[in-house]
């Protein structure tokens, strides 16, 4: 004989996959933090340097203009202007802020009246001709109301040189920015790790719970740790697990009840057939009537089980037709009028005028209404009343079957539609009932888009309502 081999993923691999998800989430948080920190650091550095350059220019522009103008007026030319920027020279610029201006030459360019560079900026630019557009960005240097040159700030500025107060300041700002970026990345890594662990913890618990379900441990619950999508998933899982456990328990109980119901008529039939075959009993119409009754009971039980199984599988055949609610109630009343009269029970119909028609399976609805009326007749004493009513409310058609019989106990009311429920087991067996009638009625109504509800008080009666 061949053997079937079932391959299951090992726990180590599944844990590896879960850890992989944690790593991916952590890396995602880290990448976002890294990109954000680098981008912010870059923007802060650029904005700081730009605003700092503007501040330095505003502070030193007028001083340079005044000194350069006096130099030209004193010498009559720009010859030797570079000496005014060197240490040790007796010039206001050499003492300005206590720093040699020659180290700040990247700040500005000095051009003569023709626009030719004579000092400042990168030394390789000396002697080059500036365009009129560049000259218009600068400040004209005048002597006796005549433009003798141009002072243009930062046309070739690349960076501040180290050793200057400005350069040292920008280095400090850059260092602080980089440290802040590293701190932000570290925080992103820590928070990312914590968040990834928190998110995957719920997934790990759900994974463990689903394994328990697969192994037959129904009813497993997980802790709802958040109110987000993962929390909704955990809540849905808990609800599914509870309903699965409840449904399984009902199915087991129903199976046991059905086995008992099947055994009773089978035992009766086997007893009679065995006695007839052994010659202990003589065949008679009474014996055949009893056997036929038990066979009908078995047939009804099989039919009910078939209907329920088709309803559970959503394969119940339906033939929807448009019909008046009044016609449905009149058909049910006419079917049980004789039985009601025999039991001295009044069977009344109330129809609200101008009711809209509904689209239902007429035969299935006849089965539902017949089951409810039959139940009402069974539990209503002589002299009682059963009222069939059709009305409209909030755009919905409501069919109701109400009696003034014994009613249903409050502790039994939530369970009467369960297929394993037996409210009066002995009486049902005596009357050939399978005990599945209300479960079938609920399945048939819901399969047609309707809803079933019940209200009851012990000693005052019961009212079933069908809403379409």
Give a description of the structure.
The protein is built from ten helices and eleven strands. With 468 residues, the chain is an alpha+beta fold. The strands form three sheets. The protein has a five-stranded mixed beta sheet with strand order 6-8-9-11-10, with helices on one face.
Mean pLDDT: 78
User: What gap, in angstroms, lies between the N and C termini?
Assistant: 57 Å
Q: Looking at the structure, what is the overall shape?
A: elongated
Beta-strand content bin: 5-15%
Main sheet: which strands, in order across? 6-8-9-11-10
SS class: alpha+beta
Main sheet makeup: 5 strands, mixed
Helical content (DSSP H or I, runs of 4+): 40-55%
Question: How big is the Rg?
Answer: 48 Å
Q: Outline the low-pLDDT stretches.
A: 1-18, 89-100, 155-159, 425-432
Write a short abstract of this structure:
The protein is an alpha+beta fold. It is built from ten helices and eleven strands.
Observed structural traits:
single chain; 468 residues; alpha+beta; 5-stranded mixed sheet; 4-stranded antiparallel sheet; 10 helices; elongated; disordered N terminus
């Amino acid at each position: 004989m061949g053997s079937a081999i079932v391959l299951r993923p090992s726990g180590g691999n599944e844990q590896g996959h879960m850890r992989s998800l944690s790593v991916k989430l952590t890396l995602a948080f880290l990448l976002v933090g890294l990109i954000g920190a680098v981008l912010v650091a870059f923007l802060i550095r650029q904005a700081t340097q730009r605003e700092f350059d503007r501040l330095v220019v505003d502070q030193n522009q007028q001083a340079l203009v005044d000194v350069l103008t006096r130099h030209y007026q004193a010498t009559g030319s720009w010859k030797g202007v570079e000496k005014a920027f060197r240490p040790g020279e007796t010039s206001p610029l050499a003492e300005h802020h206590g720093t040699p201006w020659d180290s700040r030459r990247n700040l500005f360019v000095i051009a003569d009246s023709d626009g030719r560079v004579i000092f400042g900026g990168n030394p390789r630019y000396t002697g080059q001709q500036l365009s009129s557009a560049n000259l218009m960005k600068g400040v004209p240097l005048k002597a006796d109301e005549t433009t003798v040159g141009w002072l243009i700030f930062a046309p070739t500025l690349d960076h501040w040189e180290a050793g200057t107060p400005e350069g040292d300041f920008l280095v400090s700002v850059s260092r602080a920015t980089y440290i802040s970026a590293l701190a932000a990345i570290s925080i992103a890594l820590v928070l990312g790790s914590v968040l990834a662990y928190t998110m995957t913890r719920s997934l790990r618990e759900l994974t463990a719970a689903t394994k328990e379900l697969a192994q037959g441990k129904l009813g497993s619950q997980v802790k709802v740790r958040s109110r987000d999508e993962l929390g909704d998933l955990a809540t849905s899982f808990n609800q599914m697990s509870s309903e699965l456990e409840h449904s399984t328990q009902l199915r087991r109980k129903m199976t046991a009840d059905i086995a008992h119901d099947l055994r009773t008529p089978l035992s009766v039939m086997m007893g009679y057939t065995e006695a007839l075959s052994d010659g202990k009993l003589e065949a008679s119409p009474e014996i055949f009537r009893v056997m036929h009754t038990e066979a009908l009971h078995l047939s009804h039980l099989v039919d009910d089980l078939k209907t329920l199984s088709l309803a559970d599988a959503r394969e119940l055949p339906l033939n929807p037709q448009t019909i008046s609610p009044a016609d449905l109630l009149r058909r049910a009343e006419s079917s049980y009028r004789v039985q009601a009269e025999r039991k001295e029970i009044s069977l009344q119909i109330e129809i609200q005028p101008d009711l809209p028609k509904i689209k239902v399976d007429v035969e299935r609805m006849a089965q539902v209404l017949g089951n409810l009326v039959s139940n009402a007749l069974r539990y209503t004493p002589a002299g009682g009343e059963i009222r069939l009513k059709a009305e409209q409310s909030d755009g919905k058609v409501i069919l109701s079957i109400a009696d003034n019989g014994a009613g249903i106990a409050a502790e039994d009311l939530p369970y009467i539609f369960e297929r394993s429920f037996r409210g009066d087991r002995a009486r049902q067996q005596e009357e050939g009932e399978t005990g599945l009638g209300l479960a079938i009625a609920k399945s048939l109504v819901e399969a047609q888009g309707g809803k079933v509800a019940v209200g009851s008080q012990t000693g005052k009666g019961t009212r079933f309502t069908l809403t379409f």
